Amino acid sequence: MSEPVALSRRELARLITGIENGDAAALQRAKALHASAGGASIVGITGAPGTGKSTLVAALTKEARIRNRTVAILSIDPSSPFSGGAILGDRIRMRELSGDAGVFIRSMANRGAKGGLAHAAADVSAVLAAAGYHYIFLETVGAGQAEVDVARVADTVVVVEAPGMGDDVQAIKAGILEIADILVVNKADRDGADATVAALKAALELGEATSGHHGLSLPTAIHANDSSRRMPLIKTVATKGQGIAELLNAIEQHSTQMLQNAELRRQRAEAEIMLRLGQLLMAEGERRLDRDALLRWATACAAHEAHPDDAARDLLRSILPDTL
Ligand SMILES: Nc1nc2c(ncn2[C@@H]2O[C@H](COP(=O)(O)OP(=O)(O)OP(=O)(O)O)[C@@H](O)[C@H]2O)c(=O)[nH]1
Ligand SMILES: [Mg+2]
Questions:
Q1: Calpha distance 253→114 (Å, rounded)
Q2: For residues 176 and 148, is the Cβ–Cβ distance under 8 A?
Q3: Which of 119, 155, 242, 302 could form a disulfide with 237 if both were Cys (CB 3.0 to 4.6 A apart)?
Q4: Ligand nearest to the CA of 60
Q5: Which atom of ligand 1 is nearest to the CA of 57?
Q6: CA 195 to chain centre
Q7: Ligand 1 in reach of 235 Cβ (< 6 A)
């Protein structure tokens, strides 16, 4: 494994801003640093708003520091144009961590990153890994497609659920169970925690039974657990530190599996290449798109004289001539 690259906090902060803004020099530097980014454990923490992700990340960070590991925390909000510091509530919660030289905290928002934050988050994670941080926690705010994409660039995905958020299990509703490597039912001090655990277990079993057909398709090839039975399901009370050591152990175990398994790493890399390829194709398609033809088709479709599917296929053929 390569040695960490010496980067001051100030250099790191500037580099991250550059990556967020799509600045060419910063992206070039991030690419160069990728070669030194192999040793970290990049952990996505995702789940519905208010499930306790930030509290969990703070608790995990304290536990990691007790174990003498350094930590970088990236809180990522695809819906917000603001970044730089953490949002206020988190800032208060993170205050006791931020005086620690072994902890780096930063938030990222949807500023200049065209086509989503996921590849920017991947670049920033690689930079933090190259700088020598052992754990990189990516907390995503919200539970839409953008958050799923961000989680996908992590090596280990922790999906956080909490009881008392209505009858539905949010993670199932949002379709994020299928990217999970580890499931957490946080707020286990609340009524309904056992019911939430039972609902998740049922969903996992259902996912196993119906895999590849419809509904949940667990487990995925990308975050490979070869059996849903093996997916850790951990109850935590983040506010009291309960279950946190067990959760960090599960993260460590998954991350070790990744480091030892070249096939898993290849699949993870393939997912990131596909994500980037998708973004490049969208950008290239938009660049080549015949705007006049789009306008003609849109007018015809609005008048119900043409079908949007025919329009889309015709425009695609003008971009990629041998498309069916
Ligand atoms: N009772 C209880 N409350 C908790 C627990 N963990 C977090 N909370 C509380 O739940 C609220 C939301 O916690 P956050 O950590 O901000 O949740 P989040 O998922 O980061 O929220 P967003 O970033 O807004 O999506 C806060 O008031 C926490 O103090 C827990 O284990 N038990
Ligand atoms: Mg949060």
A1: 34
A2: yes
A3: 242
A4: 1
A5: 15
A6: 27
A7: no
